[in-house]
Specification:
270 residues; alpha/beta; 6-stranded parallel sheet; globular; Rossmann fold; 12 strands; 11 helices; binds D-glutamic acid
Length: 270
């Protein structure tokens, strides 16, 4: 009886933190598949199978609505799961749409034809699987015309975060920003297209410089969820249970999560 939030590992905590700040009374169950992270270097079939299994677990355990707080899972599994049909009364939503609506200055659910928008040159930073799926460009093309997207596949960053090696993660961010700039010297906007990356938002901002507008998902997803639950309160259900679950080593994940969220957080092993 809660909203389920799923990520491959620790990245979804950035979304969880924003949801807790925006909707402090919302019961939330977080599930991180730390045992199988990172997803961003796996095949689409593999990511689909893992995502489906964990979303079904959350559905079976009282979460009618599950948010994929993971771009890689959203890119590789969401459409396939929705097209295969979800059980009656259950929903699964991804994290791309709120981000792209913000980038294209649209209100929720504005399905009018694609149009010109102010931002013309966008740098996308994401995992290798998200980049190769081109899901971001596809969703953008439904809403905007004339936007040039240069995608940078940020190999190694999620592994470094999951290992707690933030010095390596920051060095990788600088080198991925340099690589992007060689392809697109002057992006107007940068999209942090992986929910792990807000943990490195300062490093991205420092490397990109003040003239680049950075779009980061957590607050956008939290706003969009607030809007959704106001329109569909029945999807939250009753009860106030909050849980944080992992497929990995609960003590290790709890330590990293406590460090990232800057408050004590205890994970249970599923
Ligand atoms: N946090 C996930 C995302 O948003 C990432 C990744 C992974 O496990 O590679 O893409």
């Amino acid at each position: 009886m809660a909203v389920g939030i799923f990520d491959s590992g620790l990245g979804g905590l950035t979304v969880l933190g924003a949801i807790e700040a925006r909707l402090p009374d919302l019961p939330v169950v977080y599930l991180g598949d730390n045992a199988n992270a990172p997803y961003g270097v796996r095949t689409a079939d593999d990511i689909h199978a893992l995502t489906k299994r964990h979303v079904e677990y959350l559905w079976a355990n009282g979460c009618d609505l599950v948010i994929l707080a993971c771009n890689t899972a959203s890119a590789a599994a969401l459409r396939r799961m929705q097209e295969a049909g979800v059980p009656k009364g259950k929903r699964v939503l991804g994290v791309f749409v709120p981000l792209i609506e913000a980038l294209t200055e649209r209100q929720w659910g504005d399905n009018s034809p694609p149009r010109e928008v102010a931002i013309k040159h966008v740098a996308l930073f994401a995992t290798p699987t998200t980049v190769s799926s081109r899901a971001f460009q596809r969703e953008l093309a439904f809403r905007a015309i004339g936007v040039d997207v240069e995608a940078q596949s940020c190999g190694g960053v999620v592994d470094a975060i999951e290992e707690g090696d933030m010095i390596l993660a920051e060095a990788l961010v600088r080198s991925h920003v340099d690589a992007l700039r060689r392809k697109m010297p002057e992006p107007q906007a940068a999209v942090l297209g992986c929910t792990h990356y807000p943990l490195l938002e300062e490093a991205f901002r420092a490397a990109l410089g003040p003239e680049v507008t950075v779009f980061s998902q957590p607050a956008l997803v939290a706003d969009s969820l607030a809007d959704y639950v106001a329109r569909r309160p029945e999807m939250v259900g009753e009860g106030a249970e909050r849980r944080t679950l992992t497929t990995g080593d609960a003590a290790r994940v709890s330590d990293r999560a406590t460090q990232f969220l800057r408050r004590p957080i205890r994970f249970e092993k599923v």
